[in-house]
Fold:
Amino acid sequence: MKDMEARLAALFGTEARVAGPLATSGAVLRFTGIDLCAPLSAEQAGLLLEALAHYRIVCIAGQDLSRFSLAHFERFANHWGAPVPHPNNFMRGGKPAQQNGASDGAIEWIPYEKRSVAAVDKTFPGQLQCLPHESPTVLVAANFRGELGTGEPRVGGGGSWHTDIEYERLPIYVSMFLAHHAPLPRDTPAGTWVENPGGGGGYFDGSDEELTRLRRILPLNGETAYADTAAAFAALPKREQEELEKVQLRRRLNEGDEGWLAPLVRTNACSGLKSLHSPIWASRPRVRPAVEVDGMTMEASRVFLDRLEAHVLQPKFRYDHLHVAGDVTIWDNYMTLHNSPPCKSNIQSIDDARLLYRLSCKGAPALTLPRNDSPEWLQAHVTGGYETPREIIEV
Ligand SMILES: [Fe+2]
Structure:
């Protein structure tokens, strides 16, 4: 860390600071005093890439949202990989892309005003509007949409533990959030934003009690919940690590596909850290097929992966990331799991608003921009062969 501090000051100036690791597992660095409106030099990008490779989750706090745009955010994302269009933002073969992952019809980008998410601008007019953007890569995550709620706010149970898009041949490597507005009230009896309603996730029946209990321990202030699969792997006995490194998982995009084999254990090319990539039997219950361990029956695969998931979800590998407006938070999907927290919906007060923007990237990091992904590679791995336009790279 001493070395990191010295390099940080040399590259970003003496205002720049780093704190961490913030998680008990040894993950998470938090940088302050870095202005991402300015393009990054190769050395600056290199330092941040290295920070992520070693610490799995990196927060670059305090972007000035009166200047920092989603174009700046997308340019920044290009250093981590090729930004990938989100299925909410395009039609495929004339149908919403989210509905049918198998369809290979023509891609049609949906302009911002025709996206269902444009309704978030109607909830708090003149007070809270989405940052302007047209890019198909931006996913807007909000707990409000359309007219203000009436009656009591409701609290949803949170999502299921997962990594982003592990179900494609080339999985998402890095994802990132920009926080625009985070919930402020802490007025439950326990001093939190919401009380845990239990449940959530839509998990299949039949998981054991302990795994179910661990899955349901979720943060209550709108934080994103993470689990550190590099620390969890490092904590296993050597013999077991060696066995796990031989394991291949059969992943499928759709039920009935033959699918392909993908390694359970990945090694980070920069830090050499080994980690479990998405060690979950059914991370998207009823949306994507469950995973089979090569050479095992489906039942045995479930037992094997449920045990690993319970290992990874232990409190000592967990970290809840509190979102603060202006913070950019980046995570490595090969070295972490994450989950969305219980959130209020049907809200009446802007204080309860949770508004985040997500970008996700595939492929290799790039110290300098523009990236030079070949059109063939983009066609094979990125929807519609999307490439961040020049005016965004040069913003
Ligand atoms: Fe996610």
About this structure: The mean pLDDT is 95. The CA atoms of residues 165 and 184 lie 30 Å apart. Residues 162, 164, 338 surround fe (ii) ion (CB under 6 Å). The first strand starts at residue 17 and ends at 19.
